[in-house]
Amino acid sequence: MKQSKFKKIVIFGVGLIGGSFSLALRKAREVDSVVGFGRSEQSLANSMHLGVIDRIGTDVAAELHDADLVLLATPVGQMAELMSRIGPHLGTRTLVTDCGSTKSDVVREAYAQLGDKVAQFVPAHPIAGAEQSGPSAARADLFQWKKVVLTPLPENSAETVARVRHAWELCGAMVSELTPSQHDEIFAAVSHLPHLLSFALVHDLAQREHRDILLSFAASGFRDFTRIAASSPEMWRDICLSNREALHKELQLYIAELTNMSSALESGDAAKLEQTFRAAQQLRAGWKMQQ
Fold this sequence. Notes:
CATH class of the largest domain: Alpha Beta
Largest sheet: 6 strands, parallel
Distance between the termini: 32 Å
Order of helices and strands: EHEHEHEHEHEEEHEHHHHHH
Strand content: 5-15%
CATH superfamily of the largest domain: NAD(P)-binding Rossmann-like Domain
Radius of gyration: 21 Å
Mean pLDDT: 93
Structural class: alpha/beta
Shape: elongated
Number of helices: 12
Number of strands: 9
Number of domains: 2
Helix content: 40-55%
Oligomer: single chain
CATH architecture of the largest domain: 3-Layer(aba) Sandwich
Low-confidence stretches: none
């Protein structure tokens, strides 16, 4: 059955992700009106100027009661306060989804803050981004062929999940489903740990007196590995703390791997180094071919 058009969407956090969500649905002509809320009046005004939103929201109660969909596109550290703010005003048919990079903590807050309206909330994580942030970085094709993970709640009806899935598919995304715990374990390994390591390497160099000389000779390998260290410190602080148990486990495994590499270097064990490099190279090459 064909899904009906979204008459009104309300976005909290009209930055790269929230703005791109709006632009994608507007380009698909699947939304009539987009209302934006945020902490920065200048950013919201810019969103209006760029055509990302139709108007700036001023009254949460007035905007939510007849909204088809609410998108929470703020850092995960703001989710609890935001959910408590919107909960009392959600219309009976208003659905809610989010863009949080962690899910167990967001789900926990949803149960605590949304109460009997938790069935209207379908957690989501779009696997897309860029170094730039803010509405000026938003683009309609950001989610094209990118993965979006839904972590539905037991309280969600099949119709509710399908409606939220449809919204992300209209943005061009490929939608998958995991449990919140599965999501957090997976992304601790393939997303949160790499960001932590990238920040750590750049921070290490930043503290050295001759950092300018070091950076003057850094080439593509350093640039590629540290690209994600240009991401939002606030956002990644919240992500790391929200998923700290799974992330700490992955970090300990990585430290053990580094310890083995350190021992091989210290002992001049060429065979061990090559064995490690070859196994990594083969896995990486195989993964690249699947992309």
